[in-house]
Design brief:
By secondary structure, the protein is mainly α. It has 16 helices and 9 strands. It has helices spanning about 5-30, 40-55, 75-90, 100-110, 170, 205-225, 230-235, 240-245, 255-265, 275, 290-305, 310-320, 330-350, 365-370, 380-390, 395-405, and strands spanning about 60, 65, 120-125, 145-150, 155, 185, 190-195, 280, 285-290. Strands 3-4-5 form a 3-stranded antiparallel sheet, with helices on both faces. A two-stranded antiparallel ribbon has the order 1-2. Strands 6-7 form a two-stranded antiparallel ribbon.
């Protein structure tokens, strides 16, 4: 074989090996979310065209049941997130560094942003913060409700179809003719159903305005620490704020905490406010939202009404004397009682003699010291566990344990 033939053979072999290598790479990416070029505006136009051809998100079939929108693709999520980014940047959003963003996501949602992961998005399930499944269906508040952490653009957003956040008729007028043809899909009973065009959705412009403001308010507050959006969020995005506080334990914003605290105070089951203060984390360990407790005390201080605190005492009774909260261990229950008493009993001791509205006889630990017969956990065990744990470093606990041991059948010692 001459030298030219050898060279040709070598080149041919290298080409074959390169081809196999590319195939392997493509296969390995098959189950991963593949990011698009974020600077390529054509992706928005491509996705918009697809969504206009498919019609508006939902329709109603002849049986009165929803005909759900088909599952969206990663390309659609990318286009939605890219549009969200443009909205944010045009409204003064300051982009975060990788470390800043990762820390924010951990503090807010308890999620770890892995820079080595090939997935550009994390799904946050609003119903179950511990769920790690990736969902590609739009929110319907029943089956799916969640948002997306965009690791590349460093923002957070729900999924939106582009017409829900983009004035497509104005910005992409060349696509308007798509909405001149009927869109037909089969219902669950195989009946032809006409799907409305996006242009015919009632109040689309108004809803688009709200969606855009929601993207801005959430990201400007959560990532840029812009407090001017707090009022808008508690007024127009209440459900998200409730989920953020109760389900994810985000207790660092007093206005958010107070919104939920006031709802519990006004409800007939005041004791359930304890479910706002305590929860199990994803490792099944006790989580104490101390920010909530501090704000419960602050709400009381503003109102000077002891009734605002009664839910804490009622929850303590449920915790110790019923089976309702047996998902917590005895040691966890004692720690919970410690935190509740550190707030309620201290305020009782300080105020009950000169302020109307208090139960004149009992606080949490005083009532328990005087009669622990309805609980499996006895006073001695409770006290010893608190002492063993250095009173959980709670500033008032040692004092109010001593105060509780002065209670008798008549009531408080002072």
């Amino acid at each position: 074989m001459n030298i030219k033939s050898k060279i040709r053979l070598t080149i041919y072999s290298l080409l074959i090996m390169s081809s196999f290598g590319c195939q392997e790479k493509k296969q390995s990416l098959g189950n991963r979310q593949k990011p698009i070029s974020m600077n390529d505006d054509t992706i928005i136009q491509k996705v918009l065209k697809k969504q206009l051809q498919e019609g508006a998100g939902k329709s109603i079939d002849e049986a009165g049941a929803e005909l759900a929108k088909i599952q969206f693709g990663i390309e659609e999520l990318e286009a939605s997130a890219e549009t969200a980014k443009k909205i944010l940047l045009s409204n003064g959003f300051k982009e975060l560094s990788d470390n800043e963003f990762s820390n924010k996501i951990k503090n807010i949602f308890g999620r770890i942003v892995d820079p080595n992961s090939g997935n550009p998005f994390l799904y946050v399930n609003y119903f179950d913060r511990c769920d790690r499944n990736f969902v590609t269906y739009s929110n319907n508040s029943v089956d799916y409700e969640g948002g997306y952490i965009d690791k590349q653009r460093k923002l957070f957003t729900d999924f939106y179809y582009l017409p829900e956040i983009l004035d497509y008729q104005k910005e992409y007028p060349t696509l308007n003719n798509i909405e001149s043809s009927k869109i037909i899909r089969k219902s669950s009973s195989q009946v032809d159903v006409e799907i409305p065009h996006w242009k015919d959705v009632a109040n689309l412009k108004e809803q688009r305005k709200v969606n855009i403001q929601r993207i801005i308010a959430r990201n400007m507050y959560l990532f840029n620490d812009n407090k001017t959006y707090i009022i808008w969020l508690v007024t127009h995005d209440k459900n998200f704020i409730k989920l953020l506080v109760k389900n994810f334990g985000y207790d660092s914003e007093p206005k958010f905490n107070e919104m939920l605290i006031n709802e519990y105070i006004q409800s007939k089951d005041m004791y359930k406010i304890g479910e706002l203060v305590f929860a199990k984390n994803c490792d099944k360990e006790l989580e104490v939202r101390n920010g909530i407790l501090q704000n419960i005390a602050a709400v009381y201080q503003k109102s000077s009404n002891p009734h605002d605190l009664f839910g804490l005492m009622e929850f303590s009774s449920k915790l110790l004397e019923t089976e309702e909260y047996n998902n917590y261990s005895e040691k966890e229950k004692i720690k919970m009682i410690a935190y509740l008493a550190n707030t309620y009993d201290f305020l009782f001791k300080k105020n009950h003699r000169h302020q109307d509205g208090w139960d004149p006889r009992w606080n949490i630990l005083g009532a328990y010291f005087e009669d622990d017969s309805r609980s499996k956990i006895k006073w001695t065990q409770l006290k010893e566990e608190m002492q063993k744990n250095n009173y959980y470093n709670l500033s008032n606990l040692k004092e109010i344990i001593s105060y509780a041991e002065g209670f008798d059948s008549v009531g408080a010692p002072d």
